Input
Amino acid sequence: MSGALVSDLYTQLQASDDDTRIAALRSLTADDLQSPAVRLQLSVAVQSPSADIRVAALKAWLHCKQAADEQIYACITDREALVRATAFRIVLQVARTNRLDSCHRGLIDRSPEVRLSVLWTIRQYGIEIPTSMLQSRLHDADPLVACAAAELLALRQDPMAITWLCDRVSHGDLVFKRHAIRVIGRACVVSAVPLLINEITNRTHYTVYAIQALGLIRHPDGLNILLVQICSQSIAVRHAAITALIQYANPTVVTIMRQALADYRPIVRAHAITILHAYQFIPEINEVPYFLRYGKARHINELLSTILQGLSADVLVKLQTLYDHKVFQYSDGYYKLISKIIKKHPESTVLITALLKSSQLFFVRLGLMSVTEKNSDDTIMQQIIALKTHPVATIRDAVDRSMRVLAQRYPLLMIPYWSILPLVAKEQCLKQVLTHADCSVRAVALTDADPFIWIHCVRFFHQCVTANPDYIYQLTTSEIAHIVTWQSDERVFNRMHIVNISVMWHQINTPQV
Output
């Protein structure tokens, strides 16, 4: 740290304004505390009359990575509970000696906040203390302190704590009962499972807490009661049951949730799918419609991707027999995903052909979208051409769109089908056709019967000749004859500079005198 920065920080730590000093103390880092002057001001702040400054100074002390000194030990007897709680946390973390004595002093502190802070620190840092010291806190006047001590003991499977917790669930007051149920779950007290089931069955105010505890314990006896709760009228109970079942990771859950897919209540089907998704369950073909209809949007991408990775032509036939068009009204947004998967599939050509032959519009549209993602073979092209006479207008429009995309990406592939291509598709691949080295390929466009294609051809030739007059010599006599012939068509002559090419061709072929 530079001298100027240290000086500035030192000035802030000496400020008369408490807010400025607290901000400076909170900004201290381990590097800052390398400065003796800063450490001196930290020692002064620990003795400040302001409790807020003392707390900020104690928290900054943790950055020193040094053993607690006498000033820190003095703070565990501070008149302010927050200061004492912070000091105990520091002492228990960095003290090298007398740690057990500090735990004892903290657990008998007059403030419940301090006692609770000490128990949390003991648990967080795994400090070993005698069981008897914790048992003395089971009868603490503050329920939070008592429950925290019971949790530490229950994690050690202490019978006294387990009995205490079960007694609080059965006969404790409202505050004790709620915290006791939570501790039972976190400590996985198996013997308390019947008590938790009783709380759920009787629909008490603690049903949600009991369900959450069962999910943490994951005992088989609690499974059936949780399966019933996903049908509860209460949203909170249903969500708690779903979370608990997900934590169970029990094969029985998968079996029962698969049966729930056919439940007459949509909400039960949706919850069942949520649980199966969490189990990374891959549905059978006849179960996929439920997942598409009731699954959450974030799950469907993963589901379809997984299913289609192993898709075969035989499976596709089964899909066609199982699905009607309505099933897929929820999955229209996933065309691109599926088409990309099909593109990478080893049997993509077979799959696309099967899609195009499907009686379901969804599959036909999917096939048309997939065909634009790869260089299609002759079989697929023949199937696309057959769809140009499809009775559904949307399919015919999709065929035209696919042909336009194919013409743009793979223009030479479209040459054998030039005569039946839509005009826009012809325009897409016109440049590649006209610049082809083979004059027979160029002739495909030059002999087209549509005057609009002539216009595009002449525009292209004119641009080439304008850029490079010698380009005219690359054309064959028959090709130039075609161009000259087009000028007899008024639509072409009025719109293009055909006369320029005609004059050039005439000059080339006229003998010089």
